[in-house]
Amino acid sequence: MKTISDLVDKATPWKLLALSALALELVALYFQYIMGLEPCIMCIYQRVAIWGIFFAGVVGSLGHNFFIGRFAAFALWGIGAIWGLLIAMEHVEMQSASSSLFFTCDYVPNFPSWAPLHQWLPWLFEATGDCGEISWSFLDYSMPQWMIATYAIYAGVFVLILLARLLYARKI
């Protein structure tokens, strides 16, 4: 447990977290601009969650020696992983619902007025697709289903490291 707990005191694990999230963002852009798959509003929200995990890695790699840096990184990581998992699960539910009357898919993201990401970076955060459309699958799993697995891994590792950190801190 101590080894797992000590991971957050080093820059390399945080850099790996940031690198993995950046790789997912680059893959999303590849799907959007090379393969022509249009992101829906749920895809955009999941994209924001991945950016939260990326920034958690950046903050953690720069501030891992300070409590406030680790705390901020953990907060970003936890929020990004758990929020992303919930959004991906809702997206799968939208796609698998037999009656689409119960689900609506907006085209304008509900970002705060102080951070209209879809206006600042439309090439990254503008929703142009339909939430119910399944235009890509791999091994019979749609993109949101793969994102559930991805976010579950991020959330699982987050919980494991957080619990190890809390348990080890109690023994000191």
What does this protein structure show overall?
The chain is an all-alpha fold. Helices cover 69% and strands 2% of the residues. It contains 7 helices and 2 strands. It has helices spanning 2-6, 11-33, 41-63, 67-96, 117-120, 122-125, 143-171; strands spanning 137-138, 141-142. A two-stranded antiparallel ribbon has the order 1-2. A hairpin with a 2-residue loop joins β1 (137-138) and β2 (141-142). α2 (11-33) runs antiparallel to α3 and α4 runs antiparallel to α7 (143-171). The longest helix is centred in the middle third of the chain and has 30 residues, at 67-96. The protein is globular and about 45 Å long. The relative contact order is 0.17. The model has no long low-confidence stretch (mean pLDDT 83).
Spatial strand arrangement across the major sheet: 1-2
Average pLDDT, rounded to a whole number, is 83
Low-confidence stretches: none
Number of helices: 7
Q: Report helical residue fraction.
A: 55-70%
Strand content range: under 5%
SSE-based structural type: mainly alpha
Give the secondary structure arrangement, pairings included.
Blueprint: H1 2-6, H2 11-33, H3 41-63, H4 67-96, H5 117-120, H6 122-125, E1 137-138, E2 141-142, H7 143-171
Antiparallel strand pairs: 1-2
Helix pairs in contact: 2-3, 3-4, 4-7
In short:
This protein is an all-alpha fold and 172 residues long. It has 7 helices and 2 strands; from the N terminus they run ααααααββα.
Core attributes:
mainly alpha, 172 residues
